[in-house]
Structures are given as C-alpha cells and as structure tokens.
Amino acid sequence: MSFAWAKQYEPKTDFTKWLDEKLPLPRLVYSAVGAGYPVPRNLNYMWNFGVLAGFCLVLQIVTGVVLAMHYASNTEVAFGQVEHIMRNVNYGWMMRYAHANGASFFFIVIYLHIFRGLYFSSYKAPREMIWLLGVVIFLLMMATAFMGYVLPWGQMSFWGAKVITGLFGAIPLVGEPLQTWLVGGFAPNDSTLNRFFSLHFLLPFVIAGVVILHIWALHIPGSSNPTGVEVKKESDTVPFHPYYTSKDGFGLGVFLILFTFMVFFLPNTLGHPDNYIEANPLSTPAHIVPEWYFLPFYAILRAFTGDLTIPFTGIVLVQAKLLGVIGMFGSILVWFFLPWLDKSPVRSGNYRPMFKKFFWFGLIPTMIILTICGGAPAEEPYVVISQIATAYYFLHFLVILPIVSQIEIPKPLPFSITEAVLGKDADETAKAATATPGTSAGTPAGATPAGSPEPAE
Amino acid sequence: MTIRLGGIIVGLGLTAILLLWSLVPGLLNFAMPEKPDYYAFQEENVTPEGGFSFAGPMGKWDYAQLQRGYQVYKEVCSACHSLKFVAFRNLEELGYSDAEVRAEAASWSVPGIDQKDGSVIDRPGLPTDQFPSPYANDVEARAFNNNAIPPDLSLMAKARADGSNYIYSLMQGYVEPDPADQALSPEFETPPGLYFNEHFYNINIAMPPQLLPDIVTYSDGTEATTDQMSADVAAFLTWTAEPSLIQRKQTGWWVLGFLLFATGLAFLSYKQIWAGMKPKK
Predict the structure, then answer these.
(1) Do A383 and B260 touch (CB under 8 A)?
(2) Which of A295, A447, B167, B250 could form a disulfide with A374 if both were Cys (CB 3.0 to 4.6 A apart)?
(3) Do B262 and A253 make contact, defined as CB atoms within 8 angstroms?
(4) Residue A246 is inside which H or E element, if any?
(5) Which pTM does this prediction carry?
(6) Distance between CA A130 and CA B82 in Å, rounded?
(7) Do B269 and A246 touch (CB under 8 A)?
(8) A111 reaches B (C-beta below 8 A)
C-alpha cells in the first residue's frame, strides 16, 4: 500500500509500543490520514470535499441519533413529535435544523466531490474501484435522504413517499404486488413510516461501512491530482499530516460558516412550506416536488411522457412510467460504466480541450437546467426543455464521452507533478528548495526513464 | 471496446425513444398552459410599514405587539381556528407573569374528565394544557364552516411561503376586484359562500373578512385598525410557528463569530505550514 517512501509509525512511549503490538490502531490512523500517507503536493481546493463529506456523515449520524431519542414513528404522533422536538426539547430546534440542512449540505458536498471526479477523471484506472464504491455510497445516500424526508410526516413527506414508492408499480407483472409489499399497504401508512424510520437509522451505518472501503481502495493507488499525472517520486508528494490536515481544517471552517449561516438564519429556505402541514391522504398538494437535491433525477423521470408504441398500431411496448423509471435509475447506473466508457489515457480535464468544452458547456448547464425543470410544474415549456436536457445527459455519458476520448488530441502533459508545480527548470532544484521533513534523498529528478508507464498521449 | 460500443448503442437508443415517442408528440401538441383568469387578480404579499421587528438577522420580538396579537387570536381567530402545538405555559415567553398565565389559562375551557364519576366535562385550563380546539372533531368543523375545515394556526407562518407577510396580506386582502382585471375577465365572479381575497392562492376563500376596525379593544390603548390587527396577529402567529426564532438568530451570531475566528486561525496555520511549498510567481 502507498509509496515506498511513506513514513512508518514509530511508537515512542511504553504504552504506545504496547498498544502497537496488541492493536495497531494508531499505526492505522498514521498511515491512513497521518504523516504516513504521502499525497500529491498539487491538490487544489476541489480535493477538500472528501474530508467534508466524511464530516457531514458524522454530523448527520450525531444529530440524527439525538433526534431519534425524541421522535416516534407513528403516523398519529410523528408530526407532533417533530414539533415537540422544535418546541420542548432543549436546543431541539438546533438539532433538527442542523440535521435537515445537514442533508442538503451533504448533497452539495457530494455533488462537488462527484463532479470533481468527473472533470479530473478520477474514475479511471487504477481508481475504478474507488469510483464504483462512491456511486454505491451515493445511491445509499439517496435512499437514506428520501426516507428521512418522510419521517416528519408532513404533506410533502407523504406525497413524496407515495410518488416514489409508486415507481415500483411501473415494473411489469410484479410491480403492483412488489409496491404493496414494500409500502406495507396500498398507500404510505403506519407500516411505511415504521420501516422507513428503521432503515433511515440503519443505512447511515451501512454508508459508513462503504466509506471505509472507499478510503481503503483510495489508499492503494493514492489520491489523484489536478494534472492527472501519477506520482513518480518523493518530491511529488507531501505527507497528509500536517499539509492536508491543515488545508482540510481551513476548508472545514469555511464549510461550517456557510452551514451555520443557513442553520441559524435561513433554516427553512431549502425546505418546502407544505411540509409544515400535517400529512393528509385526502388532500393532494398542488405541486409535489422532492427535496432540491433530487430535482435533476425527478426531471429525468418526468421527461418520458409518451408510451413506447409500435407506430400506427397502438400496441404499447413499454409504458411511459416505466421508461421514466428506467431513465431515472439509468441516469445514475451509467456512472458505473464510466471507467470503461472514457478511454482517453489523459485524466485531467485541464489537458483535454474537447472534453473540457463538453463538460463546462454541456454537462454542467444540463444539470442546472434539469434541476430547474425538476422543480417546475409538469407543463410546457419545462417538459420539452427537460426532454432535451435528458437526451443530452445520456448522450454525454454514453455517446459523446466514448467518441471524444477516441478522437481528441490532448495537450502535452507535464512530466511530473513537481514540474507542474514549480516549472520545468525547477524540477531539478525542487528537492533542495522544498525539502520537507524526511525528504532528504531520492532519485534525481529526470532520472525516470522517458518511457515511463505514465500515458502521455 | 464492447462497453463503449454498447454504451453508444444504448445511449442512441434511449435518446431516440425519448425524442421520438416523448418529445415529438409533445412538440406536435405543444401548448403553453393557459392560466385561469383569476390569476390576474392575484397580488404579491406586502410587508407592514417599517417591517416586522423580528425580521432580519438582528430581529427582536416586539412583546407588546405579540400580546396584542394574542388578544386578536383569542377574541377573533380562536372562534374557528385551533392552536394545538402551543400550551398556555408558553405565553410566559410573551412577557406575561406566572400569575397572569395561570389566570389566562383558567379563562379558557378545555375538555377534561370529572374526577368523581369519569364523565367528560369542560374544566378551566391549566398552564400545562394546550390551546383547545373550537370543534370536537373535523366533521363538526366542516359542518359549521360550509364544508371547509379552518386549519390549525400553530405553524401557519411556516406552512406558507413568506408566511408572516402572507398572513398580514391575507388579513387585508378582502378588497373589491381590480376593475381593470375584472374588465379582462368579465364573467369572473366569486361563488356564493366564498369571499374574494387577492392574496389567497385561488382568490376565493371560505373565511369571511374578520379584522374589521375596532373588532377588538386593545388593552394597551392602541387603535385597532385592520392594518394594526393584521400585523399584530401575523407577528403572534410567527411566534407560535417558531418560538425559538430570536434565540436561534442570537445563538447564530455567537456561533458565526467563533467560527470566523477559528477559521482565521486555521487559515494562518495552513499558510504557515505550506510556506515555501508553493512556487513564488
């Protein structure tokens, strides 16, 4: 694991020596996020979001466990229990607002983390497994967040649950019984609320487990970096601690400032007012919308408005609802295939002129448009716009990416990370100028054979 | 290679299905939705002159206003609307003393059980009681109100977009339809049993106008205009929706202040640790 020059943990006191023999936990931490993990020296602020996502998970678990102590998953009392937390529990309002806004900020962080990965092709070999596990984490997060939104048992909770569980009804043959089984009835009810609470409590710990695998898989090739050039020598890296712990500390501070600003001054801005109305199965809200972080996928779901028929015969092959469900799940499942769809040997979007254009002028605007359309009522012109955006979304990953990676001529890559940071001439003198603790000797820069395994073109 | 070829085929196929079976029929029948005529009557929410005292990051409760708002609720709204998430003891937060809260609670009658024979009775309220509902159940509420249930008001200020201003606007939205809008849709008229209100989401509301001038006599001598009562009751219902509103904002300043300081220190340590690592340009 990791690089040859990674420092090893050396216990100093009798106690730590004893502990290192019996249970080398400090050694594990030292090698995972301490001075024993060499990290590329050129990471930019986009590399802060992994640590921030981990922080969000811990924040959600801590606030969530406290909320669970005061909540009751019974449709008769759930809405009132949430108000009990808001009014009677000491600082209950703070816990609940932190948890609700924490979910939103978790998704903001995760989206930035994912799109960092898309732009810098962090999914490419040798990091496919990290990416695949990341997509699994994202799917688990979506399930957890969806079920969490049902727990306050407001109008949007109920009707959101009804719409999303209704998706399973679109599956041919087994759909209806499957839906009834999943919901525990014909519409969301007490059984639904109970099982959602149970799963909402369980899944974050499953996420934590997959996060451990995600980090484990990361430590085998080490972190990627903005040039996409692999680490070649010691001067390309710095120890995670103190270099990136200090940078992540600053990033965490900025994150917390934005987060607490929302929690204390605009706590309901990202939510929907209808969720302060108790669930009423007999009164449908004018517009059923999910939380903002699901809007792009909701827009894809609703973009499929026509049944797939054989023209002029009226025979329905696939119903529009099922097409929408396939489209929505497919829009995330397609990420599983990215490592093999994009065959360009160059990782970083900075050195891929054509890919870069499609990313900034294609994919990013598409995601914004889908978010807007997902929040808009299902009427024109939003339907047509979301259909075009949905088409681009799939074309981007399934058609444009494979073709661009085939025909694109990338810009020349820097020889090494050190060269990218300090300039061509500085590479030789880099060592002396930037001697980090423990970086006394190493192979002279430039001694690496030109035909290194690093793909240059 | 197989995956990429497969991806291209799946991508083109899915796009073709989307475009040919969903987009093209949609375009052929493309129709921008026509908004119902009455949307023309809809007006934006308005804010009381000078704004609410609790608005903004430095907001504070105006306790005299909250007490006036409570009086409006008690003497007007409570005839039809419940306030089920608020207890009498919470009134202490409006600046009433313990004795005043006890007396106030006792002036309400709440459902109880006779301790001698277990029969259902009405008894004077205690500070620990929640505000009682004016109706025994939803069926009774409908029967008395032209089939519309008067909603609970505890959370109204959060259950509507821009809630405080919405309540203030709605209370004085009972106006004559704008003649210009009426001219555009001459057939529009408010159905019997409903009332025109330019701030209600579908213009015709089941609740009759309530806050007619001097319907309450304020104990602090303030003149009870419709505008005054609307602002007061909107402030009171903002408090019932979120009693911790001001505490929240004040806590927020301490938290933000600490975080700005801590983040400043974190930034300095980051810069110090990285000094010499970045190229000098």
Answers:
(1) no
(2) A295
(3) yes
(4) helix A245-265
(5) 0.91
(6) 54
(7) yes
(8) no
